[in-house]
Amino acid sequence: MKSFYILAFILTSTSITIAQQISGPQLLDKAIQYHDPQGHWSTFNDTLNITMTMPESNARTSQIVINIPKEYFSVTAKKDTVTTQYTIIKDSCTISLNGNKKLTNKQIKSNNLSCDRATLYKNYYTYLYGLPMKLKDKGTIISPEAKTVNFKSKTYLQLQVNYNAEVGKDVWYFYFNPKTYAIEMYQFYKTDNIGQVDTNTGEYIILNDIKTVNGIKIPKIRTWYYNKDDKYLATDNLN
After folding, report:
1. Which segment of the chain is annotated as a signal peptide (predicted)?
2. Cα end-to-end span (Å), the chain
3. Domains in the chain: how many in total?
4. Disulfide-capable partner of 77 in 13, 62, 126, 145 (CB 3.0 to 4.6 Å)?
């Protein structure tokens, strides 16, 4: 029995040492190998159907089409009786409201419609649903070291990510399963005027389940919370 405990201690200590020794770039490569083992993200062409639920609000359904080779993006979102559609093809943008593309200034303003918003949606969905592969994008600064951390009673390998000024000022932390290297959570904070993290800002997103799309393992359920007080925000479900 004594020898069993010694062996268990050695195995546990070894796994912790390996986790501590892995570099940030190595962790990212292992995570990409888990999620996109055949390198399909660069040729991704598929449709994502997402349902968002929020407290005290009706659900919003979104159909998102991403075709990376053709630089095509479209999101059709429906909530209550309103349906909006944004489409971007390379540098061109089109907008429709309830199927109508000929919109008045009043309709555009009251529904907050713009091509800038279309670009925001494109960047948002391709970034979050393209993780961790999107962390290879230009302007991304990967921390040289990965850390073993505990969050909500779970152990993760944590990767810190910063961005060049022209890309963004937020600081992101990505949390990976230490055995499979699957991404299981991420978190971001705003920074102040001198570049320091403001811990009262930002959100953390817990990921559950996996759905394989185009050969890529994509987290199915994303649950959003505020960093400041753990207040629940919303849940995105990839149908």
Report:
1. 1-19
2. 49
3. 2
4. 62
